[in-house]
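Running co-folding for LLZGTKA7.
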Amino acid sequence: MNNKPIIALDFPGEHEVFHFLQHFQEPLFVKIGMELYLQEGPDIVRKVKEQGHDIFLDLKLHDIPNTVKSAMKGLAHLGVDLVNVHAAGGIQMMEAALEGLEAGTPVGKKRAKLIAVTQLTSTTEEQMKSEQQIHLSLLESVLHYAKIAKQAQLDGVVCSVHEAKMIANECGEEFLRVTPGIRLAGGDVHDQKRIATPDGARADGSSLIVVGRAITGSRDPLAAYKEVCSLWEGN
Ligand SMILES: O=c1ccn([C@@H]2O[C@H](COP(=O)(O)O)[C@@H](O)[C@H]2O)c(=O)[nH]1
């Protein structure tokens, strides 16, 4: 798994994905989420992988432990690099996810890293308090989810850049902080609430950044990607 910015391939289908990928002549780190996976199924993972890209399969599983375990066992055969669940599913569910992933990973192959979503980057503290009835600060809630993910032996979490440093302090530098909600300065925020720039993410302790519309919605995706890379790498 490389540490390039992860490009979110949030497209309706295979045609749009391969049209987009034509802009790039190098191996990338890409994210396949619900929108694409639910239209194209596991074949899209195999086809993108054939082009040599690292893959984050972002399906955010959240169900009873037995169901998540079986689903992870099936996903393990796809040979992706990173997969995830919702930490709100609980410790038992996260442990079951890990068991399934380990059981399904073919002998001799590296198991995908497993991370847990804490609070979505589209959520504000006010929303969390009123809609989820969690009476902590957003930072405390994210930190709590990170700690139970660590207790379940997961490899890290999805959080916003704003919580990344605190998680590294509490859970250790090697515990991954994968941060979506990345925007170029002055760019459209869309539905995201807890955002940061790629250089802000580097300074504030992200392990990996996820960038979708700032690149996929650009008139020049390659130029936008290069700008994100150079800010992220600090060049
Ligand atoms: O908390 C989360 C978890 C996942 N995402 C996903 O990341 C990308 C972000 O796309 P942008 O276009 O850069 O906003 C998207 O696929 C989300 O499903 C997230 O944003 N926040």
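Result summary
The mean pLDDT is 98.
Residues 8, 10, 33, 117, 120-121, 158, 180-182, 190, 192, 210-214 surround LLZGTKA7 (CB under 6 Å).
Job closed.
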